[in-house]
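Progress note, sequence design subtask.
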């Protein structure tokens, strides 16, 4: 599919984004992303909930899902995410496909429910009935304004998960590190192989070799 047809499909969702935003109000943000380049995929936005602008990248959470499922990815509706500054968002993402079923982008809704959660907590504290509730799983999502933020968020989180520092990594650590980042979708980002190779002080070919190694090697 050529670029013009791709953009025409994505642009057909602009009126839907407008309708959702105008209906839901200032606590709502609606975004449309073109996945042709995940490093600057945001092409349309209504609202200012996450503070992003046109040209912002795809989030690390969606990169991981895209890496895992590819064109088989399913819409993600009614999830809860937490921004880096602690606000709670109710989110939904619907993937946009071309006429052949290839995922080319997505439309996302982010609704800031922080105030509602605070009010709910206050009501529970003063309620006679038990305030023990089943907690809803919340995913931390950075909503980065540029791709560097996404990259370093994924890298820092992986160091924390592995409980290892860059200076103390042995070969087995580096292999595991690269494969975890691959599972998170970091290599969907252009230029990420060069960044990871430079950080680990290895060649690009070494990074590719790490990716080819069997998981049992670590």
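Output:
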């Amino acid at each position: 599919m050529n670029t013009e047809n791709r953009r025409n499909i994505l642009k057909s969702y602009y009126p839907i984004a407008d309708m959702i935003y105008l209906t839901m109000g200032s606590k709502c943000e609606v975004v449309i992303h073109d996945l042709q380049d995940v490093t600057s995929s945001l092409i349309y936005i209504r609202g200012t909930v996450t503070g992003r602008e046109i040209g912002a990248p795809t989030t690390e959470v969606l990169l991981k899902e895209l890496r895992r499922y590819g064109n088989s990815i399913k819409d993600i509706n009614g999830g809860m995410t937490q921004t880096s500054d602690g606000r709670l968002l109710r989110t939904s993402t619907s993937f946009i496909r071309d006429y052949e079923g290839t995922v080319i982008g997505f439309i996302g809704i982010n609704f800031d429910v922080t105030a509602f959660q605070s009010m709910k907590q206050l009501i529970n504290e003063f309620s006679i009935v038990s305030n023990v509730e089943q907690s809803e799983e919340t995913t931390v999502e950075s909503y980065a304004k540029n791709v560097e933020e996404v990259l370093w968020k994924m890298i820092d989180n992986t160091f924390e998960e592995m409980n290892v520092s860059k200076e103390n990594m042995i070969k087995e650590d580096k292999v595991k590190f690269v494969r975890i980042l691959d599972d998170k979708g970091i290599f969907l980002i252009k230029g990420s192989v060069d960044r990871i190779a430079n950080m680990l002080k290895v060649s690009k070919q070494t990074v590719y070799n790490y990716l080819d190694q069997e998981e049992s090697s670590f």
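The helical segments are 3-11, 14-24, 60-69, 114-126, 147-162, 171-183, 192-200, 204-212. Work on this subtask will continue into the next period as scheduled.
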